[in-house]
Amino acid sequence: MDPREMTGAQALIKSLEMQRVEVMFGLPGGAILPVYDPIIDSSIRHILVRHEQGAGHMAQGYAQVTGRPGVAIVTSGPGATNIVTPLADAYMDSTPLVVITGQVATSSIGSDAFQESDTTGITMGITKHNWLVTDANDIPRVVAEAFHVATTGRPGPVLIDMPKDIAQATMEWYWPEPSDLDLPGYHPVTRGDPELVREAAEMMLAAERPVIYAGGGILKARASEGLRELSERTGIPVVTTLMARGCFPDSHPLCLGMPGMHGNYTAVTAMQRSDLLIALGSRFDDRVTGRVDAFAPEAKVIHVDIDPAEHHKVRRADVAIVGDCRLVIDELLMALDSLGLPHSDATRVGSGGTPSDAAPGAPAVPGSPAASFPRDRVDLWRAKLGEWQIRFPLVYAQTDAPGELKPQFVLETLRDATPDDTIVASGVGQHQMFASQWWKFDYPNTWINSGGLGTMGFAVPASIGAKVGRPDKMVWAVDGDGCFQMTAQELVTASSERIPVKIALLNNAYLGMVRQWQEMFYEERYSEVYLSPDLPDYVGWAESMGCIGIRVESPEEVGPAIDKANSIDDRPVVIDFRTDASEKVYPMVAAGASNDEIIVDPSLMRGDN
Fold it and tell me: Phi, psi at residue 470, to the nearest 5°?
């Protein structure tokens, strides 16, 4: 037999090996069964999940911490439909995934065969591209195309639908050259237009109340270092969206933190009062803008995004630059050089915190923006930001009263007891907002969460994928009791595969964010949000899944429980923190309201702090 002759299934696995895939997450079934046989002989590690949704979210967690595409493999019909949610989630958050689904034999497609579904039709709107393979000879090319599409331009999920008879057919092995890829019209632009870049640089130097609005595209482009240099050289403060947390250090004096519906007052109001927004890899999401017609009314907008479809979609940009954020930031820095902006090696803190005037650099060109506007042009602006930070901090009050363990106290204690580069995954809801507010993110790719789709149940499987991708890092998942009940079965996967993730379960016995809205906007008419603190027994459930289970009910128990969890490294740990159900997330901008109507913690309005 010709050694180059192999089955479609073997060609698929070999193609994944050629793409340097190290691990994939999946669950076998009838239609994908032929593909599972060559996995036995492959170098690729396969992690058997307990539900296909878990496979997708694990692949997402892996991709978010490594920057490499996550790979998931499931069967046809319900296997494929169960992974639709992770695909939609990855599409919204620009996470590179390659999902392989089994399909019934080509002769049976359209006949309502057992476990048949129109997978490519179902996923067309939530993938960058998908392929139904109809010829085994196409498999290497299709796999190469899939990885190229998933990882270039704006990253995102792709799907390969593999009929069973194609997996069983024979083909002659080859590996395609880049010129063999069949992707007409797919040519992502990575470098910015020089004239637009220079115009943007001039606007940055002329602004008096500028804000850099950093989105998740900074992390996708690996542009954190460039962002820091841009901020320090110009003295422009930075807000980091929920998807961008960690792209700019929270400890940096120019960091304003997170804007948005539950962002801090200074970040939200800085955007509202700005005269220039430099949007880098951000998309003017409704959770950031509030009511669009009232958002940043005096601001001009520079919008840098690799996806031209994002430009002018929500807010019209004065300068719209298509390109990779890392490359465009480098081009902006060169444009600033040509305009005479001095280099800076440090950032002054205090009055303005502008880059040091003593730092060496090129002299300003007479008549240029750098010459016309002194380096301290934004001192008054940053002084005002400093006033807001002092007047409207994030606050909470922990007491010793029974039943009043505050989630913020748990998170602060957890943050201070873990390494600075700990990876934190979260579910969706109050605990997600508390985690983003109270954790300090100083490193990129250490915050893993579902942003655009807001998928409950994301945390547990995503944390497992993150730990697989970065086994050298401590990984904690911050979850709520509602989210935990959706995907906790994946802790069986973690136990059996010896993946020692740690779960901080903020158990307030409610669907907390829904309860908060019902209290504030529905006259405390609590409809279908109570979950019970004891049903299920979370410690017993954790232990039944091979984890260590710990229950914490008072503030003095928090630190010792976290220390115990941190000392365990051979199995997962779940801590059931019984938290105060009445605690609400502040600040808050109500849906449909202007960001000017931000609601801060009532204690700040009373002057308690």
Answer: -130, 75
Closest-CA residue to 201 (of 365, 333, 362) = 333
**CA dist., res. 55 & res. 70, Å (int):** 10
Q: What is the DSSP string of 298-366?
A: T-EEEEEES-GGGTTSSS--SEEEES-HHHHHHHHHHHHHHTTPPP-S-B--SSTTPBPTTS--PPPPT
Confidence grade of residue 370 (pLDDT, cut at 50, 70, 90): very low
Report the 10 Å Cβ neighbour count for 409: 21
The answer to whether the CB of 488 falls within 8 A of the CB of 436 is no
Q: Classify residue 278 by its DSSP letter.
A: E
Strand partners, 276: 210, 300
- Provide the pLDDT confidence category of residue 365 given band limits of 50, 70 and 90: very low
pLDDT of residue 256: 97
Please name the amino acid found at residue 591.
Answer: A
CATH topology of domain 194-391: Rossmann fold (3.40.50)
Could you tell me the pTM of the whole model? Answer: 0.93
Count of CA atoms in the C-beta half-sphere (13 A) of 141: 15
> What angle separates helix 52-66 from helix 84-93, to the nearest 10 degrees?
20
Residue 541 pLDDT greater than 90, yes or no: yes
Q: What is the spatial distance between Cα 409 and Cα 434, in angstroms, rounded to a whole number? A: 10
Q: Determine the distance from the C-alpha atom of residue 405 to the mean position of all C-alpha atoms in its chain, rounded to a whole number.
A: 28
The CATH fold assigned to 407-586 is Rossmann fold (3.40.50)
Give the C-alpha separation, 117 to 521, whole Å. Answer: 41
3-state secondary structure 227-261: HHHHHHHHCCCEEECHHHCCCCCCCCCCEEECCCC
- Of 136, 185, 194, nearest in space to 165 by CA: 136
Q: CA-to-CA distance for 504 and 490, rounded, in angstroms? A: 15
pLDDT band for position 599 (50/70/90)?
very high
Which CATH superfamily includes the segment(s) 5-180?
Answer: Thiamin diphosphate (ThDP)-binding fold, Pyr/PP domains (3.40.50.970)
pLDDT tens sequence across 274-291: 999 999 999 999 999 999
Question: 161 by DSSP, 3-state: which?
Answer: strand
Report, as residue numbers or ranges, the catalytic residues: 52, 114-115, 164, 513
Tokens of 311: 């430009």
Residue 584 has pLDDT above 80, yes or no: yes
pLDDT at 361 over 90: no
Burial class for 55, CB neighbours closer than 10 Å (0-12, 13-18, 19+): buried
The rounded distance, in Å, linking the Cα atoms of 259 and 299 is: 16
Is the confidence at residue 353, as pLDDT, over 50?
Answer: no
**Partners of 505 in beta bridges:** 479, 576
How is the chain split into domains, by residue range?
A: 5-180, 194-391, 407-586
Q: How do residues 308-349 score in pLDDT, each as one tens digit?
A: 999 999 999 999 999 999 999 999 999 999 998 877 654 433
Give the whole-angstrom CA distance, residue 178 versus residue 164: 28
Phi, psi angle pair for 211, to nearest 5°: -140, 135
For residue 130, what is the enclosing H or E element?
A: strand 129-132
Which tens digit of pLDDT belongs to each residue from 76-125?
A: 999 999 999 999 999 999 999 999 999 999 999 999 999 999 999 999 99
Would 194-391 and 407-586 be classified into the same CATH topology?
A: yes
Q: What is the rounded average pLDDT for all residues in the chain?
A: 93
